[in-house]
Design brief:
Belongs to the MdcC family. InterPro entries: Mal_deCO2ase/Cit_lyase_ACP, Malonate_deCO2ase_dsu. It comes from Marinomonas polaris DSM 16579. Keywords: Cytoplasm, Phosphoprotein. Subunit of malonate decarboxylase, it is an acyl carrier protein to which acetyl and malonyl thioester residues are bound via a 2'-(5''-phosphoribosyl)-3'-dephospho-CoA prosthetic group and turn over during the catalytic mechanism. The protein is of the alpha+beta class. It has a single domain, classed as Ribosomal Protein S5, domain 2, CATH 3.30.230. Helices cover 28% and strands 31% of the residues. It contains two helices and five strands; from the N terminus they run E-E-E-E-H-E-H. The protein has a five-stranded mixed beta sheet, covered by helices on one side. Helix 1 links the parallel strand 4 and strand 5.
Length: 104
Amino acid sequence: MDTFHIVRPARKAPINQTLVGYVGSGDLEVMIDNSDSPQADIYIHSSSSAGEQRWLALIERIEANQPLPMMRMDIHDFSATPGVIRLRLEQALEQALTKEASYE
């Protein structure tokens, strides 16, 4: 299992604690929490050997559509496909940035 820590620029925005997906599904789990850090700290625990560059490319594609908020994001990946990864990341960010927290 590989662990990566990616730091990205972030904007100040109110966010809600969020959880989407779950590890037991053989899929991907994304958790977002508030952070006092002026950046987006993204911690990835992955069973895939694809590497940090693949993750960075996926995150940069999401950033192209919306700036990341100041947050801590924890990702637990068990070989999810790039399409599922992007879907879960976008779901988590959408929920974190809505006024009411929701959990799936």
